[in-house]
């Protein structure tokens, strides 16, 4: 890649960031009373006007609206990747890997619960053209063993072998840990192998920080909703932390969910600043991801900027989903705002 | 160049004559009304009560406005508002009822047509997507064993249909960017499950109206026929309405204008106070119109008009009416962009008119192009009745004069040579590219002169307002003027080799003015209040604060003297730029064959005129506002707005 073309892509990405939803937009959206109003607002917004031009805001289903936004994000990743002719670069293909992992997990969940239709409904058709896995065939699998067989010869052979090796103990949680570890290992490996050292250090740090966020949120949920013991939380931890194993284990030792929040707040003044009174830990952690992504976006490293925009688009889509859910459950504007990271 | 002298006028009369009095005030075209009681509570003290009635003309005006809109009658311009037979509100109501009965049938029918066109159009749009169905709707919906739904399916969901093992078919008829339009079939026994599948795939049903029975093609055709017929009917109705509008448009416009006038006149009542069946109102009128204004009420016995000096009520702000001659009048809009001067301030319109015209001529100097601008100005003034036309004629004329000085005619630099020889000059006065230094120095010299005049205007305004900081000690007062002109003189002396900077010169004309500017606030307080105080508010900041603050302000003043002066370099820059651009046009022209040359000259000239003309116009406004107005002009006044002025163009 020439310096000029890299600069052009960085500028393109930053321009895109400039069109994304702002705090003001989120405040307005949080005040909407129906999905139609949200759709209508988004339709008039520069960021989504092109995407939602042909839809009828009065009749659109909330699921379809969310799917359209996520699809547009996915198409953006592909467009940016192809714009720089980086199709054969493993790092830039990791987005597909991420989506494949998510879909395999969704398939495993439907196999374990015996609800195959659920998988088909939630399966994003736009992935078909970008993946080498035949999800139509995979969706016919009745058991994890069959799924493992169907995935032989693919990059998922090894993790699926691990899952099948667990035999009776293979529940959804263990499958999730194995498959997500596989994804993050591949991602970090590609960062190390494909990118210049300085870029690699920058992005690797961001990925590890993202993993910390994921681990903290998971541990909190396990404690708050299931009262899980520290051993179980340790087992469900994804590796490659930035925070460090020691700090994480101290977190697991907390006696209650509230104590966990307090521990996280004290662990870093930076994290503490992201909490506002009454905030959910998920929101605060998403803010941490948002902050890290915005920091990456300001760098002159093309892969870092690329990774940052993926993160920012995902957070934006999550925010819209939270707003729609908040409206469905008739939450107040203030409560909805507490769910949004901006 | 001045501001019209004003008088405060009190009008008192019997309540029964109020409407008549207000009408006369409006007709006078020179009465700027003020609320009869400005201070809150003042009316209560005197027992005066402000009138606050609901305007009875509002609903009828609204209705009449709606009718005018529907008939396409322009209501912005009025011809005459003295229509006989319309004295009271009931006259207007009667007229409106009659008018409504005449056009109501047409308007109602047109509304119905629009409604039906909209409904049928929406159905036709959906049927258009179903064109490939090849069956009629009646048959489709009356199937005994098959369950059928028509609608649209997202493109992504269509790709997922293959994943299902259930027995159903989806037949697409049409596809756009986001949806497949079509229908799905299944057996009646699978109906519930298949509906659920399609619902989860975000299938949106299209409901076909009951009046649709045949095939989509036939129904679509019939709908289009119906829509066309309705559209024709709408055209017919529009034609009938336009006939009414043509034959009675003038009459309706006149009545509407009169009604609006009555409405606005009634609205003026909220400025009137009453006591013991008498009304009181006050306002300002130009001194020159006082005699005529009084005469207007000579036939209303109960009304008395009293004149007072304009500043006799300190709570009222005296409005400003600018007096301008024919030359400067078109430049009022430029001045008003910045704001209206205060009543006891200075009217800068003539100064702006002279400097704007002069600078435009210099920066856009071309005899031919100036002539075109002048012609465009005449066209705008007399054909389009646009007020900017007059401004263009002046600028165009100035451009012609300087074009003659620079010897430029549509970019041809030597076409005027015979003229110079004929008048005994031998050659053109200024050859632009040979005298670039002269042009740039002259531009700065013009800037210095304009800045110096701005300072003098500031000194005059300061003395008029008894503001000694502004007039004497400020950076644009006497001190600033002495400092600026002395520095300029010293620089000129240095450039010409005649040094005038003696010790006495420096101390007297440079150092002392600097000290005056530095201490402008305490000095002005000392002159005005005969006491020594560092700031206007006692106890605000100490000596340290005073020194730091004024040090930085002095720094800013010095910088602004330099930057404002050098800013005028752009005047010279544009002279060179214009000549350079025309040189490019000429060079391109020479590169082409003979037949293409006139086209290139015309297009090139048009391009330069449009682009450079606009840039020059904007740049001069910038110079006027930043370099000139910022030195003396405050624009805090309120414009003189006589009541009723906007309602007519006849009276005055």
- DSSP E strands of chain A, number: 0
Overall 3D form of chain B: extended
Overall pLDDT metric of chain B: 85
Strand-residue fraction of chain A? under 5%
Question: What is the level 1 CATH name of the domain at 90-194 in chain A?
Answer: Mainly Alpha
| Terminal CA distance of chain A | 33 Å
Q: Radius of gyration of chain A, Cα only, in angstroms?
A: 20 Å
Tally the helices of chain A: 18
Distinct helical segment count of chain B = 22
Say what the CATH topology of the domain at 90-194 in chain A is: V-type ATP synthase subunit C fold
Distance between the termini of chain B: 22 Å
Instruction: Give unreliable regions of chain B as ranges.
Output: 40-45, 647-652
Query: Using only CA atoms, what is the Rg of chain B?
Result: 38 Å
Identify the most extensive interface between protein chains. Answer: A-B, 19 and 19 residues
Describe the 3D structure.
- The complex is a heterodimer of chains A (342) and B (652).
- With 342 residues, chain A is mainly alpha-helical.
- Helix content of chain A is 71%, strand content 0%.
- In chain A, α10 runs antiparallel to α11.
- With 652 residues, chain B is an alpha+beta fold.
- Among the domains of chain B are: 98 residues, Alpha-Beta Plaits (2-Layer Sandwich), CATH 3.30.70; 75 residues, Alpha-Beta Plaits, CATH 3.30.70; 176 residues, no CATH class; 102 residues, no CATH class.
- Chain B is 58% helix and 10% strand.
- Chain B is built from 22 helices and twelve strands.
- In chain B, the strands form three sheets. In chain B, strands 2, 3, 4, 9, 10 and 11 form a six-stranded antiparallel beta sheet that branches. Chain B has a four-stranded antiparallel beta sheet with strand order 6-7-5-8. In chain B, strands 1-12 form a two-stranded antiparallel sheet.
- In chain B, a hairpin with a 3-residue loop joins β6 and β7.
- In chain B, α15 packs antiparallel against α21 and α15 runs parallel beside α22.
- The C terminus of chain B is likely disordered.
- Classes of the chains: A mainly alpha (342), B alpha+beta (652).
- Chains A and B meet through α4 and α6 of A and α6 of B.
């Amino acid at each position: 890649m020439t310096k000029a073309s890299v600069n052009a892509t960085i500028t393109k990405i930053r321009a895109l960031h400039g069109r994304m939803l702002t705090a003001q937009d989120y405040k307005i959206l949080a005040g909407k009373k129906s999905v139609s109003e949200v759709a209508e607002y988004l339709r008039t917004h520069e960021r989504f006007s092109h995407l939602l031009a042909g839809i009828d805001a009065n009749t659109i289903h909330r699921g379809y609206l969310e799917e359209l936004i996520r699809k547009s994000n996915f198409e953006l990743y592909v467009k940016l990747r192809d714009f720089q002719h980086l199709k054969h670069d493993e790092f830039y293909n990791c987005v597909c890997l991420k989506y494949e992992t998510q879909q395999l997990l969704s398939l495993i969940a439907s196999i374990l619960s015996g609800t195959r239709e659920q998988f088909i409904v939630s399966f994003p058709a736009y992935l078909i053209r970008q993946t080498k896995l035949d999800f139509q065939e995979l969706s016919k699998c009745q058991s994890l063993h069959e799924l493992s067989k169907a995935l032989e010869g693919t990059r998922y052979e090894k993790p699926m072998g691990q899952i099948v090796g667990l035999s009776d103990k293979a529940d959804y949680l263990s499958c999730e840990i194995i498959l997500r570890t596989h994804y993050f290992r591949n991602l970090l490996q590609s960062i190390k192998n494909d990118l210049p050292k300085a870029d690699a250090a920058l992005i690797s740090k961001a990925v590890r920080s993202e993993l910390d966020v994921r681990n903290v949120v998971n541990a909190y949920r396990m404690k708050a909703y299931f009262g899980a013991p520290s051993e179980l939380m340790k087992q469900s931890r994804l590796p490659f932390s930035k925070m460090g194993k020691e700090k994480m284990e101290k977190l697991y030792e907390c006696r209650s969910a509230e104590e966990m929040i307090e521990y996280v707040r004290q662990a870093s003044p930076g994290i503490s600043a992201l909490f506002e009174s009454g905030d959910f830990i998920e929101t605060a952690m998403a803010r941490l991801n948002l902050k890290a992504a915005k920091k990456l976006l300001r760098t002159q490293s093309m892969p870092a900027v690329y990774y940052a925009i993926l993160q920012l688009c995902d957070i934006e889509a999550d925010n819209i989903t939270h707003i729609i859910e908040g409206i469905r459950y008739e939450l107040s504007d203030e409560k909805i705002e507490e769910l949004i990271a901006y | 160049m001045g501001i019209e002298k004003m008088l405060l006028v009190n009008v008192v009369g019997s309540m029964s004559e109020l409407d008549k009095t207000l009408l006369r005030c409006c007709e006078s075209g020179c009465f700027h009304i003020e609320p009869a009681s400005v201070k809150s509570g003042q009316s209560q003290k005197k027992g005066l009560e402000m009138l606050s009635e609901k305007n009875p003309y509002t609903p009828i005006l609204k209705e009449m406005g709606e009718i005018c809109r529907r008939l396409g009658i322009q209501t912005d311009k009025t011809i005459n508002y003295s229509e006989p037979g319309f004295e009271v509100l009931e006259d207007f109501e009667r007229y409106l009822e009659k008018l409504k009965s005449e056009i109501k049938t047409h308007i109602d029918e047109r509304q119905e047509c629009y409604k039906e066109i909209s409904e049928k159009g929406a159905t036709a749009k959906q049927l258009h997507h179903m064109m490939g169905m090849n069956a009629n709707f009646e048959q489709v919906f009356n199937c005994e064993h098959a369950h059928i739904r028509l609608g649209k399916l997202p493109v992504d969901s269509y790709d997922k249909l293959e994943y299902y093992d259930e027995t159903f078919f989806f037949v697409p008829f049409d596809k756009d960017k986001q949806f497949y339009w079509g229908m799905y079939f299944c057996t009646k026994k699978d109906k519930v499950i298949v509906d659920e599948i399609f619902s989860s795939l975000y299938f949106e049903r299209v409901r076909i109206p009951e009046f649709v029975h045949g095939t989509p093609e036939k129904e679509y055709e019939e709908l289009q026929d119906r829509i066309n017929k309705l559209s024709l009917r709408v055209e017919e109705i529009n034609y009938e309405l336009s006939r009414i509008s043509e034959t009675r448009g003038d009459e309706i416009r006149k009545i509407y204008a009169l009604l609006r006038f009555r409405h606005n006149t009634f609205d003026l009542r909220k400025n009137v106070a009453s006591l013991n069946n008498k009304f009181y109102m006050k306002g300002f009128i130009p001194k020159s119109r006082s005699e005529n204004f009084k005469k207007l009420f000579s036939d209303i016995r109960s009304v008395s008009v009293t004149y007072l000096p304009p500043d006799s009520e300190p709570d009222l702000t005296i409005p400003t009416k600018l007096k301008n001659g024919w030359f400067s009048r078109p430049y009022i809009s430029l001045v008003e962009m910045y704001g209206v001067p205060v009543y006891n301030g200075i009217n800068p319109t003539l100064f702006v008119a002279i400097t704007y015209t002069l600078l435009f001529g210099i920066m856009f100097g071309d005899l031919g192009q100036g002539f075109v601008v002048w012609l465009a100005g005449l066209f705008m003034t007399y054909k389009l009745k646009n007020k900017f036309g007059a401004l263009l004629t002046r600028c165009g004329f100035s451009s012609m004069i300087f074009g003659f000085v620079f010897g430029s005619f549509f970019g041809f630099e030597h076409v005027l040579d015979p003229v110079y020889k004929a008048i005994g000059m031998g050659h053109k006065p200024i050859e632009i590219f040979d005298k670039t230094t002269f042009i740039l120095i002259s531009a700065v010299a013009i800037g210095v002169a304009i800045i110096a005049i701005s300072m003098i205007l500031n000194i005059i305004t300061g003395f008029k307002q008894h503001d000694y900081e502004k007039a004497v000690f400020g950076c644009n007062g006497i001190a600033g003027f002495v400092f600026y002109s002395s520095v300029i003189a010293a620089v000129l002396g240095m450039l010409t080799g005649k040094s005038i900077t003696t010790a006495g010169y420096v101390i007297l004309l440079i150092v002392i003015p600097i000290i005056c500017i530095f201490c402008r606030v305490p000095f002005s307080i000392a002159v005005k209040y005969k006491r020594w105080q560092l700031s206007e508010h006692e106890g605000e900041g100490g000596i340290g604060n005073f020194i730091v603050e004024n040090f930085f302000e002095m720094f800013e003043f010095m910088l602004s003297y330099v930057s404002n002066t050098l800013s005028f370099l752009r005047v010279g820059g544009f002279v060179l730029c214009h000549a350079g651009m025309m040189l490019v046009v000429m060079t391109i022209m020479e590169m082409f064959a003979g037949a293409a040359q006139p086209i290139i000259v015309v297009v090139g000239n048009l391009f330069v005129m449009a682009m450079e003309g606009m840039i020059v116009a904007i740049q001069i406004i910038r110079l006027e506002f930043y370099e000139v107005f910022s030195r003396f002009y405050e624009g805090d006044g309120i414009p003189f707005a006589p009541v009723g002025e906007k309602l007519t163009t006849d009276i005055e």
